[in-house]
Amino acid sequence: MMSGRGGDRSGFSVLNARLLRFLCLVALVGVAGLSGSAIEAAQNAAPCAVSAPLGDGLKSAAFGLTRQELDRLYGPGAAAQSGQVYPFDGFTLTLVGCDLVIDIDQNGRFAGPQAARDLVRTLLPEDAVLAGRWQFGTLQSASQDAEEWLSASLATRYRLLGEPRTGAILALSTYTGDAMQSGTIARVELRSAEIP
User: Which of 132, 167, 172, 174 is buried most, with the most CB atoms less than 10 Å from its CB?
Assistant: First the structure.
């Protein structure tokens, strides 16, 4: 009797294994069929992605520009998982949707807080004005500085792109040290403000 039930179990597990293999095969075929269209849809749905020049006259060295405009100015960026990467002397720009991330070389000329702020200013639209600046963090974590910039031409660009964003830009600088000894700037994130 035990062997009969054991035999039933092994027959049941063989059936389960075959069913599981069949379901995995069906899932793989389905994913393979959808992956091309899913990737295409994801690329087309990316924020601030356009294929044609806008011609709106936005004057900016980087922030607010499309990938095509950045490629035209600085050469083709390298595609990475995080976004489109543009290396420069002393820093690297990564275009992530509508935003930019600036990774600063710690031995470079932009690592100091004032030099990093000056770099950020050169990358923003020409009409951007500083609206405010503040610092936050804890004693145990890396301190951060934040600045808010406002740009009317950037707001116009987002309207043309159909993006639900304002012309406000948050520049968030992260230091290498803590609140007691802030050190150098490691990274600056330039984020566009979305309309809630």
Answer: 167
CB 116 within 8 A of CB 188: yes
Report the sign of the C-alpha dihedral through residues 112, 62, 98, 155, in that order: positive
Q: Where are the domains of the chain?
A: 1-45, 67-194
DSSP 51: S
Task: Determine the 3-state secondary structure of 195 from DSSP.
Answer: coil
Nearest Cα to 187, choosing from 108, 124, 126? 108
Residue-wise pLDDT tens digits, 57-96? 899 999 999 999 999 999 999 999 999 999 999 999 999 9
Cα dist from 188 to 89, 100, 102, 171, whole Å = 16, 8, 5, 6
Q: Are 70 and 86 in contact, with CB atoms under 8 Å apart?
A: yes
Greatest Cα-to-Cα distance within the chain, rounded to the nearest angstrom: 86
Q: pTM, whole model, 2 decimals?
A: 0.72
**Residue 5 confidence (pLDDT) above 90:** no
Give per-residue burial for 33-71: e unless 16+ CB within 10 Å, then b: eeeeeeeeeeeeeeebbeeeeeeeebebbbbbbbbebbe
Phi, psi values for residue 94, rounded to 5°: -125, 120
Kindly provide the residue ranges of all beta strands, DSSP E only, lying in the chain, ordered along the sequence.
78-80, 83-88, 91-96, 99-104, 129-136, 144-150, 165-175, 185-194
Residue 128 burial by CB count (10 A; 0-12/13-18/19+): exposed, middle or buried? buried
